[in-house]
Design brief:
4 domains; globular
């Protein structure tokens, strides 16, 4: 018996090592051991591409391929490249994004959190949005971290609204009112600071909306973020150059108004021109025209040059959309 064991010792050792590696892979991938082979195929061996035919994507999605489920969902939205969009359908997008998230796809978890937060393809549910955002954040998804921050800011704003409703008939000069208000403000500031802290983490990871929101934190001087107009403009600029349209709008308004940065009609014109180039919207054309009426030729030429530089730096719409489709596990 002992001789038999000794003779097969290499096989026994190899089997033991293989089992240990299988258990480790199961832990790393966060899947049951029996699903490890399929997970390895989906992650590393599958030839699936974002541009594959819808029929193939659907077949792979039905076979429980999380990446296929994520791509198939996203291609039913306007966030996919125009030439790859399947007919936009928020219900279909929600259904398959839910399946991808349930299959531990980090980016899908973040997108699903957004769907619950905004009520896209489903009813709004902040509790579920928070749960999925936390799961995505735990897996290193900046979008999930940013959404956790946004949810905190919503909570802080709601706290103040509830206080006003509950104390609407009270004398604001009374001691009890003042004590209650200070307690509310302290709690609101604590929640707000935590929310912007999450947003800051997402901004450091390059999330465009987080960069813009962090700019607002510095512009308005929220708890933990000492008011700093230069920092605000810098973050708006970073977000704008990542193709965030709201950040572009903020830059145009700030340069035109001259309230948080020295007025620069040429810079305002540059961002108005970029916005119009990207949108083609008549309203954006009209705003550009109105601004042009109060500018001299030198300012207009300078603005046009700035716009050309910015447009060259921006990722193309197609590249940005493809980057979203290519988000993997």
């Amino acid at each position: 018996m002992i001789r038999h064991i000794i003779r097969h010792r290499p096989l026994i050792v190899a089997s033991g090592v293989a089992f240990i590696l299988l258990v480790d892979a199961s832990n790393q991938m966060e899947v049951p051991i029996r699903h490890v082979p399929g997970e390895i195929y989906n992650r590393y061996l599958s030839t699936l591409r974002a541009s594959d035919a819808p029929a193939r994507l659907l077949d792979e999605a039905k076979a429980d391929n999380a990446q296929a489920q994520y791509i198939y969902a996203l291609r039913h939205t306007r966030f996919a490249p125009a030439d790859l969009q399947i007919e936009p359908d928020s219900t279909v997008a929600f259904t398959w994004m839910s399946k991808a998230a349930a299959n531990r796809h980090p980016r899908a978890m973040a997108v699903l959190a957004l769907y619950y937060l905004k009520g896209i393809g489903t009813a709004k549910d902040e509790e579920k949005a928070s749960a999925w955002a936390q799961k995505a954040s735990d897996k290193g998804q900046p979008m999930g971290t940013r959404l956790l921050g946004e949810l905190r800011l919503i909570e802080a704003e709601r706290l103040e609204q509830q206080f006003k409703a509950q104390h609407a008939t009270e004398d604001e000069s009374s001691g009890s009112f003042q004590i209650a208000r200070k307690a509310m403000q302290a709690r609101r500031n604590e929640i707000s600071k935590a929310g912007f802290g999450q947003i800051e983490l997402a901004a450091k990871a390059g999330d465009p909306p987080a960069l813009r929101l962090l700019g607002k934190a510095y512009e308005e001087g929220h708890p933990g973020f000492t008011q700093n107009y230069r920092a605000a403009m810098d973050y708006y600029n970073q977000a704008a150059l990542k193709r965030d349209p709201l950040a572009m709008q903020l830059l145009a308004e700030r340069y035109e108004g001259g309230t948080t940065t020295p007025q620069s009609l040429s810079s305002a014109y540059a961002w108005r021109l970029v916005i119009f180039e990207l949108s083609g919207d008549d309203k954006d054309r009209s705003r550009l025209g109105e601004l042009k009426k109060v500018m001299n030729l030198a300012e207009i030429l300078a603005g046009q040059e700035q716009a050309q530089i910015a447009l060259r730096q921006l990722p193309s719409e197609n590249d940005a959309a493809l980057a979203r489709l290519s988000q993997s596990r």
